[in-house]
Amino acid sequence: MERSQKAVLREGVAHHTKARPYSIHKSMFSGEGERALYMHWHPEFELCYLESGSLEFMVEDICYPVREGEAIFVPPGLLHWARGAQAGSFWALVFSSELVVDPLQTAAFGKYVQPILQNPAGFCLHLTGGQQWQQEALGDLARIFAGAGQREDSELLVTGLLQVIWHNLYRNGFAPVLGERSLGRSAQRLQEAVRMIHAHYGEELTLQALADAAHMSEGQFCRSFKELTGNTPFSYLKRYRLLQSCVYLSETDKKVSEICMLCGFNNISYFNREFLKMIREKPSVYRAQCREKQR
Known about the structure:
The protein is an alpha+beta fold.
């Protein structure tokens, strides 16, 4: 089921090649709550810059009200979508981690990129321009989009400015979160608990069982899990169950009540409420939209 989940929600567009590890595109959108960006995820980083208008930009279950001249940094693997609040346009720069640091430079990659890949939920950033470093990053982003496709050396411009932006994000946005923490061997042990969640999400899972899978005490497990994933164990479990319910809704004709039980929810009202909170649609509406896309 995990592979099906990826197939349903992963964006099917190739954003980069070996020769050009990024893509840039501009989108127009209307207001009054209309979808400006469909729900999806991808394995690349993304910087969305709002050129005009205003958006409600969703990353997982967090809503960011984005205004003209602001931007959102979205780490890999996170569900994101947007609704227009006031009609306008936005630019998106989707890029591979290798554009920031060559993975063969293991020390630098491990320091400046790997922590964000390990715990993507902890590093989503809303750049409002409220601080000097954010103003600088937004200015560099605007320069990238202003020169996109209009200059012969645009790839050099993108590469150079993106590394400047990343330095700014890392120094002022990521490093304060990272501090001096290091998960080390704990990260490997936590993977056993994550695998248990993925294999048994439809069953009743206790904190003790998950901690035992990671060979940790419950307290140590909760602290380490939050550092690794950005979620508490049960928040992560709930998110995974909801994503699996999206697969059932889009790929089967099972009743919503049956899907609720298959995905580990014992209460249909609670399931509907949490689905609406995360997906921003009722299960029936989400299913109808998936069927419409498949035609």
